[in-house]
Amino acid sequence: VAEDALERFCVAAEALCFAIVDAQRPVREARQKVEEAQRWGRFDDMLEASERYDEAYAAAHMGLADLVRRRIPGDLVRAAALGVGGHPYR
Fold first, then answer.
1. Is residue 87 part of a domain?
2. Crossing angle for the helix pair 2-22 and 43-71, nearest 10 degrees?
3. Residues 29, 52: contact at Cβ < 8 Å?
4. Residues 7-63: pLDDT tens digits?
5. Using CA of residue 64, residue 66, residue 67, residue 73, what is the dihedral sign?
6. Is the dihedral of CA 12, 14, 20, 25 positive or negative?
7. Which range of residues forms the domain containing residue 19?
């Protein structure tokens, strides 16, 4: 049961993290450049834009991970994931 709760938490957290990271301006702009290069069939520009997108996405993801590590103690995350009763993050 605890493993199922943790799995559900991880799936929901992953979707939330993707939404937060994908909403960052550098990530959005890089993704738009990739889409534009694809639309116009410019392969070299698409490769360069894809690299920029990967870099922007990784930087935004690392920033989010650092924020979570500094602000939310691991025991609170585990308690919320496992559904510990009476816990404020439940």
1. no
2. 130
3. no
4. 776 677 778 888 888 888 999 999 999 999 999 999 999 999 999 999 998 988 888
5. positive
6. negative
7. 2-82
